[in-house]
Amino acid sequence: MCGIVAYVGPKEAYPVILKGLKRLEYRGYDSSGVALLNSGLKVYKKKGKVAELEDSLMGKDLHANIGIGHTRWATHGEPCDRNAHPHSSSNGKLAMIHNGIIENYSQLKNELMKKGYQFTSDTDTEVLLKFIEDIQQNNHCTLEEAVRIALKRVVGAYVIVLIDEDNPDTLIAARKGSPLVIGIGKGEHFLASDASPIIEYTKEVVYVNDYELAIIRPDELILKNLGNEKITPFITKLDMELAAIEKGGYDHFMLKEIFEQPDTIFDCLRGRLDASLGTITMAGVQNNIDQIKNANRIIIIACGTSWHAGLLAEYIFEELCRIPVEVEYASEFRYRNPIVRPGDVIIAVSQSGETADTLVAIEKAKEQGAMIFGVVNVVGSSIARISNAGAYTHAGPEIGVASTKAFTAQLVVLTLIALKVAHEKGSIDQKRFIHLLNELHDIPEKVRTTLQTAEQVKTLAEKYKDAKDFLYLGRGYNFPIALEGALKLKEISYIHAEGYPAAEMKHGPIALVDETLPVVFVATKDSYHEKIVSNIQEIKARKGKVIAVVTEGDDTITAMADDVIAVPEADEILAPILSVIPLQLLAYYIGIAKDLDVDKPRNLAKSVTVE
Ligand code: F6R
After folding, report:
1. For residues 453 and 67, what is the distance between their CA atoms, to the nearest angstrom?
2. 253-428: which CATH topology?
3. Is the C-beta atom of 524 inside 6 A of ligand 1?
4. What is the mean pLDDT of each run of 10 residues along the chain (611 residues)?
5. pTM of the shown model
6. Which atom of ligand 1 is closest in space to residue 307's alpha carbon?
7. 202 CB under 6 A from ligand 1?
8. What is the Cα–Cα distance from 427 to 424, expressed in whole angstroms?
9. CATH architecture of 4-244
10. Assigned architecture for domain 450-599
11. Ligand 1 in contact with 387 (CB < 6 A)?
């Protein structure tokens, strides 16, 4: 949440920062701003998307070799110019950008107001900056020292970057709980919330850890802890190409990412699955196999779409591994007093690897002795680093705010883990194991075939775009897909949608059904097929409009439903990877039909680094 970019070096800072902000806009897009230091510090900010900031700066002299930039997802204070970052100190010599939340900001603000400080914004960021300024003035110390003292009193999560008129070649940055990557160029440094603004300049990066402070000059990067001791920066090589973060001819990132799924799933299987040899190679699982296969319990912790992947994994793990599984919303888990025992294995599922609720929940479980296994997409992210072991989903950068390809990659990785554990444990018979490996091997091609439904789904989108509500129903393995389909529609088209277990419908939601309500059934061929056919009849009897996602050749449902989208036949454990695709497309095309910004839906942000 919120994107930060900064640059120091021989290049013009503004174009580097502006391009970086556009890449990070998926993290928040309420307002944006830059601070540039040439002869004097200049701060420019604007409500709205980065393009609006860019327009407002046309024709201005923006020459500078050092600067900071920010794109905001509002927490404290409405989105407006005044609350946009960077914020300025009272003496105008410092400017700061911030990603995160300062929880004790009102206490600090009261103290500062008593000293006569005035505030021009409603943000916690301005409070922290003025707190730093106050410490520097009272202690007659360097900015670095003042930041260190201030951060010892701060409660909350942050990445901050400061620029200082008195030290025109130096940026100061610090992190706790929110992400910060520093790119190391030749005589220059780049700072950003993730690597996407950096990769076209350098592949050498340092991921800053919690409680670390960085002093960055063109030729120098000094890392320290809050005790003022130097730390040797650990340089990592980025494994990412520029093309992966560009639209590549598609109108939107969301559509590109939906269509990338045959490849991302293939990448996710590559080097892991060998169907001909009947093997699954996953070092993270193999190295911890005894602990995982003998786990008392697996607790899956996640949020949003990743939680839906976790829910499906519960069905798969219990079926194949016969280990009890619980699926927890990270935000609930972290604030209850959950019972976690040393024999428990936690699987944290996260695309970004930075979701604050998930991060804190697993920290809490780790403290209680659980082993943490991360299923994460972003390499080097906080959740990946805090996990004891893990498996990356290898879906590549996901820029569209609504998760699509990361979800199917999560399903694939979780299925691979379940299969491997079941095989090692002996809870799956060899014939079924080999059958599922062969089925997994074929999934990328079946996803490709499923994508051919796009034109048909587009037509359906036109037909149903004006509906006020949607109901999504599924049973068994397809129930989490009903939830995911409903979430996608809400996010992208702003149409109210609910996902429900199909049989649970008669315990309440059936009251909603009339001839105006589209009901999407996720009804591929599985052990529940006859049951879901009855549920469809119950809806038809009440004049509901039925859109059904079915297996090719399903004449029974085709004869009953108003509209049918057919996907290739697959084992019931894997069919959800196919059945979700028309639902992603439906959300996308309804969003387009309603002329909405599908890549940046209102109020959302890609990486939710606040609780
Ligand atoms: C929905 C979506 C969100 C995320 C959720 C968790 O399309 O993207 O619901 O799934 O915010 O994010 P990660 O997976 O990054 O932890």
Report:
1. 47
2. Rossmann fold (3.40.50)
3. no
4. 93 97 87 95 95 96 97 85 96 96 93 96 96 97 97 92 97 92 97 93 95 97 96 90 80 95 93 94 96 96 98 98 97 91 94 93 93 93 93 92 97 98 97 97 97 98 97 97 98 96 91 93 94 94 95 96 98 98 98 94 76 69
5. 0.82
6. 10
7. no
8. 8
9. 4-Layer Sandwich (3.60)
10. 3-Layer(aba) Sandwich (3.40)
11. no
